[in-house]
Amino acid sequence: MEQFFSYGTLRSKEIQMRVLNKILTGTPDHLISYKLKDLKIEEEFGMADYHVAIASENPADSIKGTVFKISNDDLAKIDLFESNAYKRVQVTLKSGIVAWIYIENK
Question: Among 6, 9, 21, 27, which residue's Cβ finds the most Cβ atoms within 10 Å?
Answer without folding.
Answer: 6
